[in-house]
Design brief:
Length: 195
């Protein structure tokens, strides 16, 4: 098996891991009442961009090899970095879902008896789910030796993050007030100690 094929296979396995981590939380979330939500056009655009960049565009590339003109030589060191980034992404992704428990939702929502979570990965950053998406995008860029398929994940993540994070923080401030403001002062957004 070529290095490029190994990278593609590992990307597919990472996406399957993402799905199997997320699925039980989606099912449980349907049973918890939503008190308020912020579903907006910009949020829908951000979620669509993330799906397109982290799943559809790279999936199309992996399945078809198109656009072949954007391919470059795969390197073992790049695949190794991609594996580390994707494993880290899945670890953070799983820990984030576990820490959120019944508070998790795919859209900007406050649920019945919603609690401010500040343990687990939330002790280090306010938005570890975005941290996991950033790590997925980095992993994808190293696993898929194609300028379009590889970098689409970082673009999708960036669109989601910049369209959504400010609105998410406003919603949390409205819900938790001084408690969330104090939490913001102790933590960074997505990269511990940096940003």
């Amino acid at each position: 098996m070529s290095i490029a094929a190994v990278g593609k296979t590992l990307w597919v396995l990472g996406i399957l891991a993402w799905y199997f981590i997320r699925r039980p939380h989606e099912r449980r979330a349907r049973r918890v009442q939503v008190v308020t939500h912020r579903r907006s056009p910009s949020e829908r655009i951000g979620l669509a961009a993330a799906l397109l960049g982290l799943a559809i565009v790279p999936g199309f590339y992996v399945a078809t090899g198109i656009p072949e003109s954007a391919d470059y030589a795969a390197r073992p060191w790049a695949v190794a970095i991609g594996i580390v980034a994707f494993v880290a992404a899945m670890w953070v992704f799983r820990r984030t879902h576990k820490a959120l428990g019944r508070n998790w939702s795919i859209t900007l929502e406050i649920r019945d008896r919603h609690e401010l979570v500040s343990s687990g990965p939330y002790a280090f950053v306010r938005h570890p789910m975005y941290t996991s998406f950033l790590l997925m995008g980095i992993g994808q860029a190293f696993l898929l030796p194609n300028w379009l398929g590889g970098l689409a994940g970082l673009v999708g993540f960036a669109v989601l993050f910049f369209l959504r994070v400010d609105e998410e923080e406003r919603m949390m401030l409205e819900t938790f007030g001084p408690q969330y403001r104090a939490y913001m002062e102790k933590t960074k957004r997505i990269i511990p100690y940096i940003y």
